[in-house]
Amino acid sequence: RPFLQPPEPAMRSGSAFALLAMLILLPAGPASAQGFKFSQPDAAPAAEEAARQERIAQQLSTPCRAELKGKKIAVIIGEVQSNGYIAAQQQNYGPHFQAINARLRSLGLATYTPEEIRKQIAQAEIDAYFRNDPDSALSAAKRLGASFMLRGLISSQAMMNPVIRVNQVSVNMGFTLTGANGRIISDTGASSSSYAGADVSSMALTLVNEQADEVVARLYGDYCRNAAPAGGSR
Predict the structure, then answer these.
(1) Whole-model pTM?
(2) DSSP secondary-structure letter at 37?
(3) What does DSSP say about strands 184-195 and 110-111: parallel, antiparallel, or unpaired?
(4) Which residues does 215 contact at the CB level (< 8 Å), separation at least 6?
(5) Residues ≥6 apart with Cβ < 8 Å to 118
């Protein structure tokens, strides 16, 4: 009788099964050995925030003489408008003022309220102060009895993002701390940008608050290192 061969399909099926089992049991390749994952978390934002918090902590750890904390600082806020004019009516910048003022006070520094400033300094003097008129700055400090003047100048620019067709706002902040005699003690700034939706002014204030911690920390460090106890006469 002719020799009977086993059914060929069954052989192929069994071989395929054996091959599959061998592949499953093989050790993982280099990708597994290196801890490869299809989805790797982005650690950059966390590292950036950690570095930011370290910078803030370093500035806030600056030793500060007790007599400096009792000296009064006048915080005056202005805004560069789209036509280049600097608007400095203090009653219009209450939230921006508080973003900086509350942090200064939480560090034990003494500041004037906007009402106290408006009662003692004429608007014309404030406007001249923002035009870098040193005589007006000195006059305003003397009239108020301030040992230090902190000028905050905020500029914001809103535009339509050409790609996704939404409002985008960029905010720049510059802060200059001077003694009553005009000597610069600290000059610092920050900038940020974000999509704004329809409420551009609200987003601008949000960005100011986001940047305020680091700005105030730098001001505080410079103040404690560079300011003279008598209010800038050094």
Answers:
(1) 0.73
(2) -
(3) unpaired
(4) 100, 173, 175, 188, 189, 190
(5) 90, 91
- Report CA 49 to chain centroid distance, whole Å: 11
* Distance separating alpha carbons of residues 188 and 177, to the nearest angstrom: 9
Beta bridge partners of 172: 155, 191
| pLDDT lower than 50: segments of the chain | 3-4, 9-13, 19-26, 28-34, 36, 38, 230-234
pLDDT, tens digit (0-9, with 9 covering 90-100), for 29-73: 444 444 545 456 677 888 999 999 999 999 999 999 888 988 999
Q: Answer whether 113's CB lies under 8 Å from 75's CB.
A: no
Q: Which residues contact 133 (CB under 8 A, 6 or more apart)?
A: none
Q: Which secondary-structure segment (H or E) carries 195? A: strand 184-195
Tell me the sheet residues that pair with 79: 87, 154
Amino acid at 77: I
Residue 46 burial by Cβ neighbours in a 10 Å radius (0-12, 13-18, 19+): exposed
Separation between Cα atoms, residue 181 and residue 45, nearest integer Å:
42
Q: Note the pLDDT of residue 7.
A: 52
Q: Which two tokens stand for residue 60?
A: 């806030």
pLDDT digits (tens, 9 = 90+) for 167-190: 888 888 899 999 988 899 999 988
DSSP structural state of residue 63: -
The pLDDT score that the predictor gives to residue 36 is: 46
How many residues are recorded in the chain? 234
Q: Is 171 helix (H, G, I), strand (E, B) or coil?
A: strand
